[in-house]
Write a structure and sequence with these properties.
Length: about 190
Amino acid sequence: MNFLAHIYLSGNDTELKIGNFIADAVKGKTFTRFPHRIQQGITLHRKIDSYTDTHPIVRKSVTRLFPKYGHYSTVIVDILYDHYLAAYWAEFSDIPLDRYVADFYKLLQEYYEILPKRIQIFLPHMLQDNWLLSYATIPGIGRILYQMNHRTKNRSKMNFAVMELEQYYDEFEREFRSFFDELEVFTKNEMRTL
């Protein structure tokens, strides 16, 4: 899953959200330098990723993209699934997406000093382009995929994946919905063991 899903799956727990959000920028055991609840958020993120990467429904989505995008297909599916979460946000939360996102951005600024350097570097771009809110539209996802392709020095060709999103929109949506129901149950169970 991508940023929005990781944040959402953390519930209302501030430090769990921060940990879940920064986890990809924290390598190996370096997570132990963070406060305990942020460590747990990092651990939760890793469990969510492991569950997601091996799930048969997600594999089905990835397989649809693999011939064209190779190993970047998993990253693309994470982003596409965040699109559906954002596009149908009102089904998942009583807080409007724009307010939810604005509150999370404030939270990141409050915790700025402990964010990993990599997060501190891209945070201004995230805020300026409002990445999390832009997930809700196809043009917004197109911009995110374009930026991701740029970060891979144009090797991934992710910028073209918006075409598959449009072509297979209903199929990806069905897969997202089936998978996300299971992921929410998995995450709630994992949170009880933290």
